[in-house]
Amino acid sequence: MAQRISRAKQTIRSSSIGFAEPSLDERHERLQVVLHVLYLIFNEGYTATSGTALLRTELTAEAIRLTRSVYAVLLDHGEVAGLLALMLLTDARRPSRTQDDGALIPLDKQDRSRWDRRAIDEGVALITNALATAHLGPYQLQAAIAAVHSEAPTSDATDWPQIVALYGLLGGLAPNPMVTLNQAVAVAMVDGPSAGLAMLEPLDSDERMVRHHRLHAVRAYLLEMSGDLDGARAGYRTASRLTTSIPEKRYLEARAKRLTEPEPLN
To answer: What's the Cα-to-Cα distance from 48 to each of 33, 40, 148, 189, 246, rounded to whole Å?
Structure first.
C-alpha cells in the first residue's frame, strides 16, 4: 500500500494534476467507495475468509474507528450512520460467536447475555435516528435488520416477519445474491423451509454463487429444517469442501457428522 501511495504521488507530480473540491456528484460517488471499502474491511475481520481464526479483531476495530471518523464529519448522512450502526450491532455479538477453542457458534445458539449491550444501545440509537431523518439506504436497512436481532431476548423471540419485510426493501434497493441468501433464511422462519428453498433456486445459475460455500450451507440448513437429512448432510459436506476458513470448515463438518451418527440413547 505504501508503494502504491508513493507511485500515485509521483504520477500526480509528473502530470501536474491539480486538486480541487469535488462536485456534489463526485463527492457522493467517492463516499460510496469509501463506505464500501470500510464495509469489506469489517466483514473480513468479523468472518475471515481464510485461515485458522474466525475473527480478526484488528480489522473490525480499525473499520469501526475509521467509520467513526467519517461519521464525525458527516453527522447527518444516513448511510454513514447506518454503516456505523451496522458495525456496532454486529460486533456486539463477537464475545459469544466462538467457543474457547475458537469453534464457531451460530446466532441461534449464542449466549445473548454476553453481547455488548453498550454497543447495541449505541447502534440502535444511531439507526433509529437515521431512519427517522435521512433518505433510506442499504446500510441503514442492514443495520435495522441487525437491530431486530439484537433486541430479541432469545432466538425464538426474533421478529422474523419484520426481518422478512426489511430484506424485501433491501432487495429492492440493492439486489445482491447474498441478500437473497439471507432473505431465504428469514422467509423459511416465517413461511417454512420449502419457501426458503424456493428462493435459493435462482442462485444456482448465478456464477458468483455456484462455487460459494454459503449457498450450499444455507440450502443444507433449510433441508435439515425440512427433514431431508440426506440432502442436508451432502450440502454441509459440499460447503465444507468449498470454504477456506478452518473454523467454518470444522463447523460444517460437525453439522454433517451430527446428521450421520445416530442419536445417543438416554
So the answer is: 21, 11, 24, 27, 10
133-148 residues labelled b (16+ CB within 10 A) or e (exposed): ebeebbbbbbbbbbbb
Q: Where are the domains of the chain?
A: 29-163, 176-259
H-run or E-run covering 200: helix 193-200
Name residue 63's amino acid: A
Which residue do the cell numbers 433510506 mark? 136
How many alpha carbons fall within 13 Å on the CB side of residue 146?
29
Considering the segment(s) 176-259 as one domain, its CATH architecture is: Alpha Horseshoe (1.25)
Percentage of the chain surpassing pLDDT 90? 85
Residues 165-187 have a mean pLDDT of 96
Q: Is the pLDDT of residue 225 over 90?
A: yes
Rounded mean pLDDT, 175-193: 96
The answer to whether 239 and 213 are in contact (CB under 8 A) is yes
| Pair 173, 136: CB distance under 8 Å | yes
Q: Which residues contact 8 (CB under 8 A, 6 or more apart)?
A: none
Q: Are 90 and 146 in contact (CB under 8 A)?
A: yes
Side chain identity at residue 202, one-letter code: P
Closest CA to 47 of 62, 37, 57, 38: 57
User: Tell me, what amino acid is at 142?
Assistant: Q
* Mean per-residue pLDDT, 178-183: 96
